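Help needed: design a sequence for this.
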């Protein structure tokens, strides 16, 4: 819609039709694969048709109006921009849209025709799901393809009852349509299986849908059914395991000892599994779908990995504050070193000259660090972890090898202090809270989290190049001579001093991250952390990444 507004409020009114057309086509491309609502797609096509009309391309304008009406039958012209010619083109488009929108379908691809996303998003393909299916039995799904839809492929997207993830199955040719069976491993409990179907052409572009993510079809899964469904021309699928062969406790199988089950459904609060309906278990205080490793009735249950260890790499970016007199020894937060990396500290007396002895603010690379971590879930029913990180930092500032020199020929003493060695040790306490679900690592799933580090031990130092005009020579005596083209007489130019901002040795931090599970126990985490250094203040932005292992 931002592109729409820019195209119509700026480019169109400035008679820059090419720019307006480009923005609107870009917006329509972003709406592919049902990414936008039907009214939005309709509004974009109306706008593009208006632009074509402004350029006297009335045939292309009419084609866009047809696509707009196919996407949203309530689509209307823009009153302030309507001309008699556009109004007539819109009336003609209304007639063609009612007749099937042939003009829009036959328009040239470069002029908004072909297979526009608006047509894809228009009404779903007619489909009737099976009335019911028995637990532990594959669910047949069949869709007949209308003659007007050129579909070469069909994909079934379904979600088993109680699952948090959608799964996909490619459907095969069956009669005049496509069919597939949802495997019994996803039909292990009573409840509704939800699904929708996406039809695609040979190029892989969507050409129709049956149902949607927000309004899927449903098939009730029951312990007993009246009729057995099947795909056209095929026998009804067989139950995967007879009830008498089921191990006790498996969803859809008899309970151990023939215990009577309660009537609480999925998501209801519970204390024991016996309170939940058959096929559900009591996990973390709620009735949920039975899972691998589910606990028996009455036992304390938990789900997920309660212990997590990790190996991390972190980049330190220090927010350097802009200030003057950084190499004068008057600011304890700065220490200056001669270039070359040999640890020779600057102990001179810079003169006050504009453009020297000062730094501008900004982010500076301050090295990095490697760390190991251990976190433990505190409560079984709450995804809150407490942990610790230990590590070693690289970079920082050099170690000063010489004490301050004595200033000769002056009653004042040298104000510089010898810089302390950089502390490479990193240690922090950490509290982490996962926002979605209670598994810390789940295969194929993303788990966002936030964290707080109330206290930690670290130092982060970053340098900025600085030029100074120094009244002293390297031995501490007064400089003599005519200076240079940048420095006045009786001073020397010292270029590219490394002015290190010193921060720490403590910090408090906070941030957010996400974990992606590669296996049920192994994942990769990435996070962004802010570290407030104290008592010597500084702010550090620290992107971090590393593998994690849950057990």
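Sure. Designed sequence:
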């Amino acid at each position: 819609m931002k592109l729409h507004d820019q195209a119509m409020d700026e480019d169109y009114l400035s008679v820059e039709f090419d720019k307006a057309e480009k923005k609107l086509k870009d917006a329509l491309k972003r709406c592919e694969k049902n990414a936008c609502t039907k009214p939005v797609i309709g509004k974009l096509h109306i706008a593009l048709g208006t632009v074509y009309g402004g350029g006297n391309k009335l045939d292309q304008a009419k084609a866009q109006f047809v696509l707009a009406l196919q996407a949203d039958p309530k689509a209307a012209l823009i009153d302030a921009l309507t001309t008699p010619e556009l109004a007539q083109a819109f009336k003609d488009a209304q007639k063609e849209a009612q007749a099937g929108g042939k003009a829009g379908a036959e328009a040239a691809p470069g002029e908004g025709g072909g297979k526009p996303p608006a047509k894809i998003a228009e009404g779903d393909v007619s489909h009737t799901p099976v009335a019911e299916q028995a637990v532990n039995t594959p669910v047949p799904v069949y869709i007949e393809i209308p003659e007007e839809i050129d579909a070469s492929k069909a994909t079934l997207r379904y979600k088993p009852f109680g699952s948090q993830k959608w799964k996909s199955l490619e459907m095969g040719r069956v009669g005049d349509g496509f069919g597939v069976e949802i495997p019994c491993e996803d039909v292990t409990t009573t409840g509704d299986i939800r699904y929708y179907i996406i039809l695609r052409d040979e190029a892989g572009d969507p050409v129709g849908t049956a149902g949607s993510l927000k309004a899927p079809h449903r098939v009730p899964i029951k312990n007993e059914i009246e009729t057995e469904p099947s795909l056209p021309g095929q026998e009804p699928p067989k139950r995967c395991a007879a009830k008498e062969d089921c191990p006790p406790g498996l969803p859809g199988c008899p309970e151990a000892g023939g215990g009577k089950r309660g009537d609480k459904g999925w998501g209801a609060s519970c204390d024991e599994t016996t309170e939940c309906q058959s096929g559900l278990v009591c996990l973390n205080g709620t009735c949920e779908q039975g899972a691998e490793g589910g606990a028996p009735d009455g036992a304390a249950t938990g789900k997920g990995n309660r212990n997590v260890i990790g190996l991390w790499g972190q980049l330190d970016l220090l927010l350097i504050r802009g200030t003057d007199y950084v190499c004068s020894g008057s600011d304890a937060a700065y220490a200056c070193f001669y270039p070359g990396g040999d640890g020779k500290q600057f102990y001179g007396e810079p003169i006050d000259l504009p453009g020297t002895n000062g730094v501008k603010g900004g982010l500076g690379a301050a090295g990095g660090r490697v760390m190991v971590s251990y976190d433990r879930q505190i409560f079984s029913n709450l995804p809150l972890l407490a942990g610790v990180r230990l590590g070693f930092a690289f970079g920082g500032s050099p170690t000063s090898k010489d004490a301050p020199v004595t200033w000769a020929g002056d009653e004042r003493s040298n104000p510089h202090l010898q810089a302390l060695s950089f502390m490479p040790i990193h240690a922090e306490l950490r509290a982490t809270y996962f926002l979605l679900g209670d598994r810390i690592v789940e295969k194929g799933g993303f788990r966002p989290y936030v964290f707080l580090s109330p206290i930690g031990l670290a130092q982060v130092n970053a340098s900025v190049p600085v030029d100074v005009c120094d009244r002293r020579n390297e031995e501490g005596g007064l400089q003599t001579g005519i200076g240079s083209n940048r420095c006045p007489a009786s001073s020397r130019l010292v270029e590219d001093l490394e002015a290190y901002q010193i921060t720490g040795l403590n910090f408090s931090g906070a941030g957010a991250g996400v974990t992606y599970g590669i296996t049920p126990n192994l994942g990769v985490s990435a996070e962004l952390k802010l570290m407030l250094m104290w008592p010597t203040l500084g702010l550090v932005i620290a992107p971090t990444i590393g593998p994690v292992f849950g057990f």
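The radius of gyration is 35 Å.
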